[in-house]
Amino acid sequence: MSCRLKFVLAILGLLAASRLAAAPLETLVTERVVQPLEYRVDGVVEARRQATLSAQVAGEVEAVYFDVDDFVEQGSLVMKIRDRDYRARAEQARAARAEAEAALREARLEFSRSEDLRKQKLISQAQFDRAEAGLAAAVARAASATAAVAGAEELLGYTVLRAPYSGVVVERHVEPGESVQPGQPIITGYAEGELRVSADVPQSQIDALRRLREVRVIRVETGASLAVDKITIHPFANPANHSFRVRLDLPSQVPGLYPGMLVKVALAVGQTERLLLPSVALVSRSEVNAVYVADAEGRLSLRQVRPGNRYGEQIEILAGLEAGERVALDPVKAGIEHKRQLAGE
Questions:
Q1: pLDDT by residue (tens digit) across 303-329?
Q2: Which of 227, 253, 271 is the last residue of a domain?
Q3: Which of 90, 237, 276, 300 would be a feasible disulfide site paired with 152, CB 3.0-4.6 Å?
Q4: Domain limits at 87?
Q5: Among 77, 95, 76, 79, which residue's Cα sits nearest to residue 87?
Q6: How far is the first Cα of the chain from the last one, in angstroms, to the nearest whole number?
């Protein structure tokens, strides 16, 4: 790089710094605000609707159409069992029903003729009773045959397995060619976007939760808070650890959350005062956290502080700063101004 180019770049840097320094420095007077006092516990993300589909008839698996992480639409064909025997049984049942219905028609005709002959006193009572009994038996056989058809067709329908709702496959338990029995698991999935959080709350905090019913679910990786649609508190404690299981329903379609993930659950148990600052005002260098503080004459100083929990876009300051002090909101501009003030001394 030539000396002239270095000189030009240096001049441009000085001009940019001067423009930043010339811009008014935005500050904020700190104050303590009343906020909920929270107690935090670990929580686990769960699916509100999760199901394992099982085989309802015995047979050889002909095809499994979805695998782990596949999205399945409601009503989609998930698995098919070889149905040759079940189709044959259904055809036999239909043929038996047709035979029973033909016999029923014949029995009705026979009973009608017997009834006419009985009125004319051309047959005995015993003959009429036999015709009546034959009709009753034919009606019963026809009903039995109809029920057999319904049962055979239902078994035939069980040779295909369809998704009861739209969701994501989390486990596939069988492969094509395997023989399955009724009740054997086939595939497990959960409804995507319908999540909740389960947490164990100590008995010392459960009364406050029942009274205030204010809860935040906090993402561990980002610190972002999530709203809670519904709070369900189990009516009994776990005798092993004397805690109550709490379920928290989350809004639909929360991106980046999956069953099994760890989150933090913040329970409101009272009120407290906190000194909060916008998180953008905090300067973090290695393990040191600081803010630029302006005195009454506008002189800036970099002061180390101890931050606490985040609350949305704000962060709690536990030590190093008092209410009523003025803090720069833009650390970059404040740093330039601080260097300019030091150079002017």
A1: 999 998 888 788 999 999 999 999 999
A2: 271
A3: 90
A4: 50-190
A5: 95
A6: 34
Q: Does 180 map to a domain?
A: yes
- Pick from 271, 305, 333: which residue ends a domain? 271
CA distances from 309 to 256, 279, 314, 318 (A): 22, 11, 9, 9
Instruction: Report which of residues 91 and 1 the model is more confident about.
Output: 91
The token pair at 337 is 């101004």
Residues 239 and 122 in one domain: no
Has residue 163 got a pLDDT over 50?
A: yes
Q: Are 29 and 276 in contact (CB under 8 A)?
A: no
Same structural domain, 130 and 175:
yes
Q: Within this chain, do residues 244 and 260 fall inside the same structural domain, yes or no?
A: yes
CATH number of the domain encompassing residue 127: 2.40.50.100
Give the tokens for residue 168.
Answer: 């994501």
In the chain, where does DSSP find H-type helix?
3-22, 84-119, 125-157, 203-212, 331-344
User: Looking at the structure, do residues 69 and 138 belong to the same domain, yes or no?
Assistant: yes
> Letter for the amino acid at 44?
V
* Residues 35, 41, 42, 47, CA torsion sign: negative
Q: Residue written as tokens 């709070």?
A: 231
Q: What is the pLDDT of residue 192?
A: 83
The residue behind tokens 């051309």 is 122
Question: Does residue 13 lie within any of the structural domains?
Answer: no
Residue 29 neighbours by CB under 8 Å, 6+ apart: 324, 325, 326, 327
CATH number for position 279: 2.40.420.20
Q: Is residue 18 included in any domain, yes or no?
A: no
Token duo for residue 7: 């000189």
Residues 54, 196, 169, CA angle at the centre, nearest 5°?
Answer: 35
Handedness of CA 82, 85, 89, 95 (dihedral sign): positive
Q: Can you give the pTM of this predicted structure?
A: 0.61
